[in-house]
Design goal:
The structure is a single chain. The chain is about 40% helix and about 25% strand. Helix 3 crosses helix 7. The two termini are about 15 Å apart. It has a four-stranded antiparallel sheet with strand order 2-3-1-4, sandwiched between helices. Strands 6-7-5-8 form a four-stranded antiparallel sheet. It is α+β, with helices and mostly antiparallel strands. The protein contains seven helices and eight strands, in the order βαββαβααβαββαβα. The longest helix is centred in the middle third of the chain and has 16 residues. The chain is globular, with a radius of gyration of 16 Å. It folds into two domains: about 80 residues, Alpha-Beta Plaits (2-Layer Sandwich), CATH 3.30.70.1280; about 100 residues, Alpha-Beta Plaits, CATH 3.30.70.
Length: about 180
């Protein structure tokens, strides 16, 4: 059995796509998840399953579209993949303040030319580093003030994305250890 972390994009934001965490736990269970736990209201779940990540994503996205009437991207990482994310954050490793760190989880690995174009758009003190399907962000002026948003990366890389702050990433990794 594999431990997975599911992160939904655009749940309970500005009154849109309202989803109670109890309903999310039920949705994950219906998609084949066991021992489902959620974290904060933005659509994070940690669970175990015998199903593949691809099958879980498909089942969850179908269930969300049926219940909410909207397409909601679901990005899933295994515990092992999230462990790598935790070890690879270049901004954490160099000692940057954790409140300035975020990770954008992508559905696909971006093309090198697209990564180069995205780096050219980083302004002010914002920095980004792409490793595999993750975009590590250092936003010293706050994520709310950066142009390096989900929408930016989805447009540049042609892939679905969702961003979590470093505290959330750390908490999800800790939950996956239990």
């Amino acid at each position: 059995m594999t431990t997975y972390i599911a992160m939904l994009r655009g749940i309970n934001v500005s009154g849109r796509n309202r989803l109670a965490m109890e309903d999310l736990r039920e949705l994950v269970a219906t998609a084949g998840g066991e021992d489902v736990r959620t974290y904060i209201q933005s659509g994070n779940a940690v669970f175990r399953s015998r199903s593949s990540a691809t099958a879980i994503v498909k089942a969850m996205e179908t269930g969300l579209e049926h219940s909410l009437g909207a397409k909601v991207p679901v990005l899933v990482r295994s515990k092992k993949e999230l462990d790598v994310v935790m070890k690879m954050n270049p901004f954490f490793l160099r000692g940057d303040e954790i409140t300035t760190l975020h990770v954008t989880f992508m559905g696909e690995v971006p093309a090198p030319a697209d990564v180069k174009a995205a780096r050219a758009k980083a302004v002010d003190a914002d920095e980004l580093q792409v490793i595999r399907r993750e975009v590590y962000l250092h936003c010293p002026n706050g994520y709310g003030n950066t142009k390096l948003t989900n929408a930016f990366f989805e447009k540049k890389f042609g892939s679905e994305a969702t961003t979590r702050n470093w505290k959330t990433v750390t908490t999800l990794a800790e939950m996956a250890q239990r």
